[in-house]
Design goal:
Elements: E1 3-5, H1 6-13, H2 17-25, E2 33-35, E3 38-42
Antiparallel strand pairs: 1-3, 2-3
Helix pairs in contact: 1-2
Length: 62
């Protein structure tokens, strides 16, 4: 299995490096592991769904 680092995953998913690290810490990415200080994320892992955003509801701005 091939792995990428948290910064590489962050760039791929369009999120910050810190957010990618936090997702790893919270075990929200299947197959993630830590080697020393570096998170290893499976290359084919998908970005976890952001629970803060409700699906199917449009945001309204005034």
């Amino acid at each position: 299995m091939e792995y990428i680092s948290a910064p590489e995953a962050a760039k791929k998913w369009g999120i910050s490096e810190r957010r990618a690290q936090k997702l790893c810490e919270e075990n929200r990415i299947p197959g993630v592991s830590k080697l020393g200080y570096m998170w290893l994320i499976p290359k084919d892992a998908e970005k976890p769904i952001d629970g803060r955003i409700k699906r199917g509801k449009e945001l309204q701005h005034e």
